[in-house]
Amino acid sequence: MERVIHRAESRGFADSGWRRCYFNFSFANYYDPRRINFGALRVLNEVTMLPGEGMNAHPHDNMEIVAIPLQGTLEYGDNMGNMVTLTAGQADVISAGSGIVHTTYNNSPQEEVHYLVLWIFPRRYELPPAYHRVTLAPAVRNGWQPVASPVGGDGVLPINQDAWIWLIGLDAGAEASYRLHRAGNGCYAFLIEGEAAMADVELAAQDAVGVTDAEEVTVRALAPARLLLVEVPMQNWKQEEDEA
């Protein structure tokens, strides 16, 4: 088993006044050549957007972009005619493919929106763009809650990659094992809140650990905890220079 450990305080950070972003991997004005990606996982950003603010129309291509709200409401729109709201308990994916233009706003007059954004390199490039939003299956305490998979399903986003995304909430002292779907894949765990341990690494809130060369990992809660886990292929992926 090989591990990479990313402590919360080592993340990149940008504060534009209307939006605060923490970067687990190199992004925008944050660059660390040791932290470009974890296999097919290119981006994991934790974002807080102030009321009444948002990102105007901007393009993406050839990337799977997943948003998971933790608090508040996002309003999403794109040039394919989609216009939806996204709240905690839901998630969406932009399969940008050959190109898509979209906007993201927090139209609440008083509540911040707090969400996670993941970018995953696609399995196939230049496909027609697509957008999906789901209401996640109800969370089961101490059990894995599916967010995304290669085929999707009821309450599960489809993504164009041999990758899986999960959430889990754990009571203090509880354990949950996760068996990887494919040989050669790795898993990257980000502790949203609480205290936990995985792969003999103790994690505080916003710490992360990536694990490779393992068939199974176990998460143990040292205090009530909530965790995001992403399983991705680990072969080399082209690096995108456009971080718009």
TrEMBL record:
<dbReference type="Pfam" id="PF02678">
    <property type="entry name" value="Pirin"/>
</dbReference>
<dbReference type="InterPro" id="IPR041602">
    <property type="entry name" value="Quercetinase_C"/>
</dbReference>
<feature type="domain" description="Quercetin 2,3-dioxygenase C-terminal cupin">
    <location>
        <begin position="147"/>
        <end position="232"/>
    </location>
</feature>
<dbReference type="InterPro" id="IPR012093">
    <property type="entry name" value="Pirin"/>
</dbReference>
<dbReference type="InterPro" id="IPR014710">
    <property type="entry name" value="RmlC-like_jellyroll"/>
</dbReference>
<dbReference type="Pfam" id="PF17954">
    <property type="entry name" value="Pirin_C_2"/>
</dbReference>
<dbReference type="InterPro" id="IPR011051">
    <property type="entry name" value="RmlC_Cupin_sf"/>
</dbReference>
<dbReference type="InterPro" id="IPR003829">
    <property type="entry name" value="Pirin_N_dom"/>
</dbReference>
<protein>
    <submittedName>
        <fullName>Pirin family protein</fullName>
    </submittedName>
</protein>
<feature type="domain" description="Pirin N-terminal">
    <location>
        <begin position="12"/>
        <end position="120"/>
    </location>
</feature>
<comment type="similarity">
    <text>Belongs to the pirin family.</text>
</comment>
